[in-house]
Amino acid sequence: MASLTQLQLALHSRTLDRAALLLRASVSVKHPIQGSLAFSNERQYRTMPTHGIGKYKHLLPKEAPKKKKERQQMKQIKTATDAEYGTLNVKVSGYDMIIVEHYSQYIHNLCNRLGVKVAESYALPTKSTEVMVMPEQGTKMYVDAILKTHERIVQFSQLNVTLCPIFMEVMLKNQPEGVQLSVKPHTEADYQARFKARPELEGLMAQIT
């Protein structure tokens, strides 16, 4: 009797083991991620090789190295002939920046319509003027207002001699109030006036040389 009960217990334990294995297999097939997480806390996919999946930088074209900006140099000044003027500067100045900017754009568009070649159109550094006032009682002056003068340059060349009077008349008729207009030949001093003076840097350069 003892051997029979032992045999029955052994068969019963084997059937339980097989049932447990079948249950584990069914869980892993239905929910493979949950099954793997149920039996192991480690994430298996982190240890798997990716073989470079998701990398794209090697597919992009190589960027060319950035070139250093060259120092701006003065353009050659064209000389006047019997039929055409040389390089001329139309200077527009005033206290209202918006009016000065719009009038300089109008002159630029007028040159394009009349076939006058515009070489450059740029702004000069803003100039500030302090208005000092002396009170009736006292001798110490104080700053009452600061006036800022805005200047624009429209530089063109190859202006026909016969077209110049018409061009000047149209500009003067459309000149806004409070805006000053002047036309003069371009010189090297006008080119240097484009850049803001830096006395500290110039003093250091003078010490080095």
TrEMBL record:
Could you tell me which species this protein originates from?
A: Salvelinus namaycush
Question: Which superkingdom does the taxonomy of this entry point to?
Answer: Eukaryota
Q: Indicate where this protein resides in the cell.
A: Mitochondrion
Any idea what this protein is called? Large ribosomal subunit protein mL48
A UniProt-annotated Pfam family: Ribosomal_S10
Q: Which PANTHER family match?
A: LARGE RIBOSOMAL SUBUNIT PROTEIN ML48, MITOCHONDRIAL RIBOSOMAL PROTEIN L48
Instruction: Kindly report the protein's main subcellular placement as a broad class.
Output: mitochondrion
Q: Which UniProt keywords apply?
A: Mitochondrion, Ribonucleoprotein, Ribosomal protein, Transit peptide
Q: Write out the similarity annotation.
A: Belongs to the mitochondrion-specific ribosomal protein mL48 family.
Gene Ontology CC terms? mitochondrial inner membrane; mitochondrial ribosome; ribonucleoprotein complex
Q: Enumerate the spans annotated as Small ribosomal subunit protein uS10 domain.
A: 89-184
